[in-house]
Please model this.
Amino acid sequence: MINKNALATARSSYKPKLPGVLCGNSPIRTSSLKQDGDTEIRALFPMTYDMAPVTFEGDAQTPGTSSPLRIGVILSGGPAPGGHNVIAGLFDAIKQIHSGSTVFGFLNGPDGLLKNKGIELDATTIDRFRNTGGFDIIGSGRTKLESEEDFQKSLATASAQNLTGLVVIGGDDSNSNASKLAEYAKAQGASICIVGVPKTIDGDLKGGGIETSFGFDTACKVYSSLIGNIQRDAISARKYWHFIKLMGRSASHIALECALQTQPNITIISEEVSSRKLTLREIVDGIADTIAYRAANGEQFGSVLIPEGLIEFVPEMGNLISELNELLAAHGEAFNGLSSLPQKREFVSAKLSSPAAALYRNLPDDIANQLILDRDPHGNVQVARIDTQRLLIDLVEAQLKEMKAAGTFKGSFSPLPHYFGYEGRCAAPSNFDADYTYTLGFTAALLLRERLTGYIAAVGGLTRPASEWVAGGIPLARMMNLERRHGKMVPVIKKALVELDSPTFLEFANNRDTWAKSSCYIFAGPIQYFGPSEVCDQTAYTLQLEHAAQAAHSLT
Amino acid sequence: MINKNALATARSSYKPKLPGVLCGNSPIRTSSLKQDGDTEIRALFPMTYDMAPVTFEGDAQTPGTSSPLRIGVILSGGPAPGGHNVIAGLFDAIKQIHSGSTVFGFLNGPDGLLKNKGIELDATTIDRFRNTGGFDIIGSGRTKLESEEDFQKSLATASAQNLTGLVVIGGDDSNSNASKLAEYAKAQGASICIVGVPKTIDGDLKGGGIETSFGFDTACKVYSSLIGNIQRDAISARKYWHFIKLMGRSASHIALECALQTQPNITIISEEVSSRKLTLREIVDGIADTIAYRAANGEQFGSVLIPEGLIEFVPEMGNLISELNELLAAHGEAFNGLSSLPQKREFVSAKLSSPAAALYRNLPDDIANQLILDRDPHGNVQVARIDTQRLLIDLVEAQLKEMKAAGTFKGSFSPLPHYFGYEGRCAAPSNFDADYTYTLGFTAALLLRERLTGYIAAVGGLTRPASEWVAGGIPLARMMNLERRHGKMVPVIKKALVELDSPTFLEFANNRDTWAKSSCYIFAGPIQYFGPSEVCDQTAYTLQLEHAAQAAHSLT
Model:
């Protein structure tokens, strides 16, 4: 049972905007095939590497096929706003292609495909979920399709369900695996076509024709709304420093985008920390200096944005975590036999290298405990569980105490920790994400109509009005890179980290000193669905700045 | 420097709706004076007790005065959405009364009045803050005006500033003190008139003609939006139990209103815990049983709302905290001399009564530490700092472990803690709060035009369209009760706690079993400013249900 309030009811009738090229019969146009590329990757994907990108055109020719499609769909990994609209777009498109087409939703992620567990998605169900957040229409899951056995089971299910196509809605890993499954299926002579859709709030699945992943826009707007409210509180109460950790497993795109939307006093970008090889101490010194500077100006308040993945990007912390992972794997039994936490901490301290041990001993107790207690099923430290915001508060507090004793800080420091993540992953999509996801789903259906496999749906020109967007597909194998995983080289889609020469980072870097010293907060406000276009349809700054830089570049 | 994005710019031109009765010259109508009342309170307020409520009428007679007003204004205590619009309404009204009227804003709360620190608020400044959240136009503060010395200083400032009136925007305490200052001023023959405005997100300043305090509506909508997003995440990821603590110092109005807006699985209401004399163990058992029930149905996820003030309402915890406060006051030096936390915990345990010591020893370490470390300047435990959400998680986890061993819980439990407070106090006001606060400020000005003192601005009929609202004033002294504070009886406005026979609580109580067992979450969505009226102008359920019950009652 799902109950809707007035907003949800009003919003359910929103008609996502489709690009003009998808409003006709949308015949396909194939780009010229590039014969260059990576020989190693080509060797791994002989069936699906030498394919060309395709785009759809809006004129009214006869479509490629008019037989019914039967498409399976999977939601994979962490939820992102707009997932339901991908499925709605897919549904509307296949019904338009042939009224006898059907969509079968696999339950709880790839696991549903392996076990052939799913439900038929009919018009009533689809209508109930239009423009809503969440992945609850069929649930999501983190099972990975990796082994040949997984692929065999997947094809068996596809065959049992008579699927003509499968849409995998997921992040870099899920799309990498979709690519491998497509390659495997084609090599086996299976008729099923497999198409991916770029999803992740983290914003790190982009490049090579993918302009942004869906959900990033909405999640950043939700977080920015909260950061704005907190900053208004900071400047009203004038006595708190807010340390705000933001979700985003590795890359700092979310923190960077939120910084541009809200202009906080301090934003830490993990990629810069890594590139400049900053120590924890140097990060803390930088924060403390800004706090002291502002206090001297009578502003004993402020905001600090911290990307969730930071810890692993601090080289000395990254080393410590690697050493802990290896050490606990090697001595797990002896470690687990110890009864008290201080004993456990002493046990690992004694086995760490000297610099790692020194760092570990200097960490606040609760963080030192989290590092050895919160481990995932593989025994690794769960970095996302570390309260980095509290770690930084503790260390900054200690540093300010020293500065106070030395006379370089005269003021008080009242810190408050926050962590935003689950508040944004399942928000109802912004107009942008509602339109973008619907178009992605629609595009995926057209790719499957064309019997294309091993492609990812790609929608471009995203800073232009939706009517002018372009839509097509990119061969997934062409997005692959070889990376070392668990000791061997495997083909994966590379996570797009924040580039320190990107226009987004430079915009931030050019302004951050001003934002640190004076309080020029932007109070972003909540996502609006019904207002003026400049309020409701604005895309993320990251996208705007990247497009502006590309346009400038193409002019020169 | 304040920067506005497109939403803030669009929103700044919103024209708050005024009731029809305030659109004309609004002559005043005085109700008949009640001669009954509390003799003790009357004795304490001889100058301002025997005054009658007043209302304004909309016909076009000559207003009471047309000489310029000079009004001081104070923002007191924690911020609440709409404070800036109170000042905007005040400003527009006094300019309408006489174009030579002026508003002087005291900086950082009552402290600015004591020290005569403030700024002239001109039209440019006011325009910059229309419809925005926060109290940053002049800042707020928690200084209390309590002593005769405070009152003398206040009158000296009023005289130095040539104030004809003073508006105190605050909660129960600030309005109690405004009442005392008004009484004092009148007794001294000072000409200044003092008027209060009911502010607090907690929703506990109501009754006696005040239907709700401003800010409650917006704050509850912000929290409900976040709770809705988290619940959508819960039902999508299907593996987390979210424990969400909500701001609200004492009363549970916020938790109750958010429960009605979002239909979470479990909501704890402090007043019920107190009334039923529940132990921590009983609360934990209740939560664990629901978790086990849902797990048995394949739903290993859920949501729990926890009011911030809960701890003090659990009788045994309230006792423990009182004992700790007394003990630490008596033995502070010996306690502070101890170096380690375990020593400190042992020290207090040995001095607590036997039941309190047993409870204290069973608390998780971090909570036991918080109880003795985080104390306010008076040496009292800072209840708001206690991570009740983490305390409950720890205790529920332990209980589920026992149930698992006993075979009564078969499932896994992944809890996540959240705390929402600062996210809502300074949000831009909802349409309701924008209109309500503007009308309150406008009303305060008219009361001061009439040279009324010791009144609180009162706007009623709030579930009807704003055009039909009534507006007037209620004598503050009539809202007083005698309460024991620091060992003596003092007159204060009584905090309105959640009544267990109120229509709001009954609505919740009638539905909570269903909400606990099945997942019938409402995903509230963000506050909308531009959409259909049923989306943008809906008032809080608390207000709707109270008005419906009153209407039903008046029919019988």
Observations:
- Residues 514 and 520 of chain B are 8 Å apart (CA to CA).
- The mean pLDDT of chain B is 94.
- The first strand of chain B starts at residue 28 and ends at 30.
